[in-house]
Amino acid sequence: MIRVSEGEPSGYGGLELADHVSTIFSESGLLSRASNFEYRPQQQQMAHAVAEALNDQEHLIVEAGTGVGKSLGYLIPAILYAVSEGKRAIIIPIRLTSRSNWLKKTFRCCRKFSLSRSTSPC
Questions:
Q1: At 91, is the secondary structure helix, strand, or coil?
Q2: What is the end-to-end Cα distance of the chain in Å, rounded?
């Protein structure tokens, strides 16, 4: 579940966010600098759809198999959207195993990695 909490809006309009997210997840995008990154077109499509849904304030249901990269696929667009709009993104994985996995892997990676500054994520 992703919930955006109100704050001070600060810009990132229209498809600009979705296009930016697609670039981050592309074969030569920012994430490709990580030694363990593997380009996955399904992950890129999901991240783009999440960014569009957040921007349009619409609901989105995504079903994807193991190994697609769902955690980063929703986390990166949510963080970018929240920061650009001056809001908070609240991420709550439903299953305990998902929550544990997310805390161990995804959060550790994101702590090391600044989307705008790092040359070597994770």
A1: strand
A2: 24
Separation between Cα atoms, residue 98 and residue 26, nearest integer Å = 25
Q: Which residues contact 108 (CB under 8 A, 6 or more apart)?
A: none
CA 60 – CA 1 distance, rounded (Å): 10
Domain boundaries, the chain: 2-112
Note the pLDDT tens digit of each residue in 3-29. Answer: 555 544 444 444 488 999 999 999 999
Distance CA 82, CA 88 (A): 5
Render pLDDT for 20-75 as a digit per residue (tens, 0 to 9). 999 999 999 988 888 888 999 999 999 999 999 998 999 999 888 888 888 889 98
pTM tops 0.85, yes or no: no
Q: Please tell me what DSSP assigns to residue 115.
A: T
What is the per-residue DSSP string for 1-24?
Answer: -EEEEP-------TTHHHHHHHHH
Sign of the Cα torsion 73, 75, 81, 84 reads negative
How far, in Å, CA of 47 to CA of 70, rounded? 8
